[in-house]
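Student: I would love a firmer grasp of how sequence relates to backbone shape in proteins. Thank you; the sequence and its tokens follow:
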Amino acid sequence: MNLDALIWVLLPVFVAAGSALLSFYIMQARMEVAIAKERESLAEANAIINSSKVTLEERTKATEEATRRRALDDFMQEFRVEERHYFRENRSAESKTKAMILQERLYFRNIPLSNWVEHEMIVEENAEVSQVAKGRSIFSGNKLPQDEGAVIRMPQQPAAMSHIS
């Protein structure tokens, strides 16, 4: 009977130990699944953060570039060219020539950046004034046309002003 009592005492201990091991392994597997899900959600969150970071940097660069471009455009809009013209007739014994004098000056806001630049263009009798002056500006981005009749010269200072400079 001694052996019988020992089996009845040890059997619940073995069952309890087996149940404990079984519940330990089940809980271990559940924890690994939970950790895997957390790692997956963490990886997704990191990917979203990284993509947001990249798009934010790109937007920042694009905004800075647009601001820089807008500032340069605004700065360039402050430059202007003032033009004026008049006609001069040169009469000589042999011929009579009519010339249009076009004067230009470059300004930044109200500040002149250059002296008056003169263009002297020979005008034919039936030529239009707007066509003669077209494309002659020094300050525009266009090249001057090759024309032997055009003379570009700087205006001379009056004698009264020469002692100032």
Observations:
- Residues 143-155, 159-165 have pLDDT under 50 and may be disordered.
- Residues 79-153 form one domain.
- The beta strands are 79-91, 96-108, 111-112, 117-123, 150-153.
- The helical segments are 2-77, 129-133.
